[in-house]
Amino acid sequence: MFFGQSSILGLDIGSSQIKIVEIKKGRRWPRLLKVEVAPTPGGAILDGQIVQPRELAEHLRHLLVTAGIKTKRVVGSIGGKNVITRLIKVPVMPTKELQTALRFEAEKYIPVPINELILDYLELGEVLAEGVRQKQIMLVAVARAVVETYCQVLLGAGLRPVALEIEPLALWRSVGGMGKFSSPEATPDIFCLACLDLGATITNLVICRNKQLQFSRVLSWGGNTITENLMQTFGWDFTRAENEKRSGRVAQPTGLAGDEAVLSTQIRVAIENTLSDLAYEVRRSLDYYRVQARDEGVQKIILCGGTASLTGLDTYLERELGLPVKVGNPLLSYDDDLPIRQRKEAQKIAPATAVALGLGLREVIG
Length: 366
What we know:
By secondary structure, the chain is of the alpha/beta class. 37% of the residues lie in helices and 29% in strands.
């Protein structure tokens, strides 16, 4: 009964890459129809803001044609510094009263005029605070101008936006084990799971407890931080520094001698010096969550995003954080209609598709 239903696109436009997942309902599991990752045109996004909407829309239109994607319905994402989230507690009350109350709460917690924002919220469940039942709420705010620009890009590319959603919710679906279509990472023995979505300029940290989204934070660290440090340290251009970053130096390659061994060690030290900043920010966020949640804290960390595939990163973070760390593959849980060659390519880029997959799942599994 599901196979006649139309498919949906999950579209994640990052500062470095555009990720697209086409998905539809299947008989038992959602089915993957297309998985595409392509570079974002240079100059289109600056500091997380779309600054060349027409050029980006034309690039996206061309990408869709080249990939053979005909579906027009799309769920897009807005994330990073464009999104303000606050975790708050309010008394239990009817939905209509809650919506009114949250507007007043937003004025207290968000330092931007409310009329310039689009507000939404997510109920994270009820808690007992000082003997009183309260609702735990994730309050979300996005500037209207940001939403309008994003919609301009989608419409300019010939797409039909179904929804725009924040990245933490998408990561919750694809990695955090939401609902019956659970991520392979959200096993029964792991009740508190963290996902690090490592992009080029920022990192999204999402914590899910008992398959429910509990916490999210944006870290001002991305893969380009390593690249820029290598450029400054060794005087390389961007291409050389990017290639050296992905050469596996963090994993301490063996079999090198002489000047090559010395250079390899210098590169590894430079990379680890940059990674130490990431480890510090993650550790601080995990400690904050543990204190606020008053539980045992995170038991396992899953790495997603384009930078997650950096060789040796999982081992380094595992050592620094004292927790199991694994590179995630959010595509494993789903059937697909991909040709064998495309299936192999999709598995290689799978960590980068976590947000795009989660966006598509919004319309497939709710």
